[in-house]
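Notes from hallway chat w/ T.B., transcribed later so I don't forget. T.B. wanted the structure written out for a chain they're using in a teaching module, and asked if we could keep both sequence and structure tokens in one place. Agreed to drop them here.
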Amino acid sequence: MLDRNAVGRKTPPTLHEVEKGAIRRFAESIGDPNPMYFDADQARAAGHANIPAPPSFAFSFTHGPDLRELLGVPVRSLLLADLHWEFERIMIAGDRILVSSRIADVGERPGPTGPLEVAVLEDEGRDDEGRLVYRGRRTYVFRPTRDV
């Protein structure tokens, strides 16, 4: 069972440096051949100051202590059910993003075979000057593991 008292728990902010090599590898891993993710000249031609990161790049950031552990369940018992981002601006190579996360909700939702336990985690990324870059919202479904 998910720890219902986990709501409000936060991770300490974790610094992430957005590097062009990491952007390239991420774009390759998701199969996005857009040349602006690989070449600074192409990025500038598209109106960016440097190589931009694909929007889903934010998912590659770690969040300090794993909030799933703070929920009181093994990582393998959680399935990512929904993921949503809202961006204030695009991240580019050279950015330094401070990411913090918190458990926003723990509860139940109806499922096809009965109620499902869910946890909602909210992430926030800010630049060196404290300006909001993005907000993310991840919803996990708890799947109890069977002892074998």
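Follow-up for T.B.: Residues 4-19+54-142 form a domain with the Thiol Ester Dehydrase; Chain A fold (CATH 3.10.129.10). Might be a good example for the class.
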